[in-house]
Design goal:
- It is a single chain.
- The protein is α+β, with helices and mostly antiparallel strands.
- Helices cover 62% and strands 11% of the residues.
- It contains 22 helices and 10 strands.
- The strands form 3 sheets. The chain has a 5-stranded mixed β-sheet with strand order 7-6-8-10-9, sandwiched between helices.
- The longest helix has 27 residues.
Length: 514
């Protein structure tokens, strides 16, 4: 199959155009789509916290949805670098939290194109236009298309990791570790990638019979890159503010990780996310064969030999991360994003080893078409709009006393439910998937004398589970005062009948029903 020279010249730009245009068009969407909807709502409202001043201890507030958590608290899931960048973009553009977060991720995707092209030219010694073509194919992968359109810090983390790889290949180790530190500041689990860089540095030092000083330099560089993340976690552990470490322990993940490693469904989910969802099925299969061929083929350059060894080490370190956080990894698919780097490397090598050019072209076309279909289907699958949060925030603002709590109940059929709530006021939240599963927790909260109001939020669900909840709420002395329709969701406001002895002792005034 002969491709005209004119097409060859413009093809790299067409591929990049095909990857960038969908991401650019999605900037106009004022809603949260696909993937971990709850996570994206958390991040969007944390950005809004900075924009509105709803922060505590210098960090934004996150509203917990698990019934065993106490409500609105400052949350240190990741260093707020992503949120602060998004706030800066909003200050310039005035677009709001969602679009500002999406613009930051679009910039991250553009950075991926730049650094991926440099890696291809330097490490693989391929022509610049071919390198540009490969960069375009990379951003067409479903994982990049999905999370490049999301409000989530994992995308800039991935861009920073690719930049670190680029500078490491170019021999600028210190700069590479600075980019690794930036990746950790976007998302704490990038420390497992730092581990891969450090191990590879030690292997190279050993092979070159380096001195103890060389080992020490690598250790210091790695330590400096992770120090902001470690210090930040240490501070929040000391201040008893929820963070990944305390949450890991409180939720029993340390105990759950072990059992999950002995469950077949964990490995099924692992391989699905790593080799199917993020890279697309054809490319994921090619990456497996590409890995086998790469380590079997010895007739390659020294630079390629070093790079394939490094990718193998990186993949193993990410597997270690997945195993340590087995229970969390089983839930959060975006945790698999860093795997895209070694998977893409071996996948593109697998494509290059196809002997027939026509077959190679057909494989690329299938990869691109299925990737676009897969990412488009995922982005349309679930939808939730942020305006639902406004009524809840307004309800919280009507509470005269910060010690008085508003109970929030979300009813949804989604396994990963939307959590569009953030407020300066304290409160509790429930996400209801099945009535029987959480009715006990609800009744415990309803009997708490501090609860003076309830916001019941539900969308189209099967079986009308909200009717049973309304009945239970009214049995505990709360009456509906009004309801509002927001998009496809309904919000019902309940108020308590009056006051109990604790209210009288506190000297509180009864809320005025509207």
């Amino acid at each position: 199959m002969m491709i005209p020279e004119t097409i060859k010249k413009i093809l790299p730009f067409l591929v990049i155009f095909a990857g960038i245009v969908p991401l650019a068009l999605r900037q106009a969407w004022n809603n949260i789509l696909e993937g971990q909807i709850g996570k994206q709502n958390f991040v969007a409202h944390m950005i809004e916290s900075y924009l509105t001043g709803a922060i505590e201890s210098g960090f934004p507030l996150r509203f917990f949805f698990e019934p065993w958590h106490p409500g609105v608290i400052p949350w240190a899931e990741e260093f707020p670098l992503y949120h602060l960048f998004a706030v800066g973009i909003d200050r310039i553009t005035g677009l709001g939290a969602v679009q500002s977060g999406r613009i930051l991720n679009l910039i991250s995707v553009l950075a991926m194109i730049h650094f991926t092209r440099r890696i291809c030219v330097r490490a693989l010694a391929i022509p610049r236009k071919t390198a540009l073509f490969v960069s375009g194919l990379f951003i067409l992968l479903p994982g990049i298309q999905i999370y490049g359109s999301s409000v989530i810090p994992d995308t800039p983390m991935l861009a920073a990791l690719i930049a670190a790889l680029c500078y490491r290949i170019e021999g600028r180790k210190n700069t590479a570790y600075l980019w690794l530190g930036l990746a950790c500041a976007f998302k704490y689990f990038a420390v497992f990638s730092v581990l891969a860089f450090w191990i590879f540095d030690n292997i190279e030092t050993f092979r070159s019979k380096g001195s103890k000083t060389d080992y020490l330099r690598s250790f210091i560089a790695a330590a400096i890159s992770v120090s902001p993340t470690v210090l930040y976690l240490g501070y929040f552990i000391h201040a008893r503010i929820p963070n990944p470490v305390t949450e890991y322990m409180a939720n029993g993940y340390g105990h759950l990780a072990g059992p999950f490693l002995f469950r077949l469904k964990f490995y099924i989910r692992f391989f699905t996310w790593v080799f199917i969802k993020n890279p697309g099925l054809p490319f994921g299969v090619l990456s497996v064969f590409g890995c086998i061929l790469a380590f079997r083929d010895k007739a390659t350059s020294n630079e390629f030999e070093r790079l394939k060894s490094f990718m193998g080490i990186w993949f193993l370190c990410l597997v270690l991360f997945a195993m340590v956080f087995a229970s969390s990894f089983f839930v959060h698919d975006y945790y698999a994003l860093p795997f895209l780097i070694p998977v893409a490397f071996f996948g593109f090598y697998g494509i290059s080893r196809i002997p027939s050019p026509p077959v190679r072209v057909m494989v690329v076309l299938v990869m691109v078409i299925l990737g676009i279909v897969q990412s488009s289907r995922a982005l349309r699958r679930q939808m939730h709009y942020l305006p639902a949060a406004k009524i809840v925030r307004r309800e919280f603002s009507s509470i005269p006393d910060r010690d008085k709590d508003r109970l929030l109940i979300f009813i949804t059929n989604f396994s990963q439910p939307p959590i569009p709530v953030l407020s300066r006021k304290s409160g509790w939240s429930f996400v209801i998937d099945h009535y029987a599963d959480q009715s006990r927790y609800l009744k415990e909260r309803l009997s708490d004398p501090r609860v003076e109001g309830i916001v019941l939020h539900y969308g189209p669900t099967s079986g009308n589970p909200h009717e049973q909840w309304q009945k239970d709420i009214m049995e505990f002395g709360f009456q509906p005062t009004r309801s509002e329709k927001i998009m496809d969701n309904t919000v019902i406001i309940f108020r308590s009948h009056g006051f109990n002895e604790m209210d009288r002792r506190d000297g509180a005034k009864p809320p005025q029903n509207e």
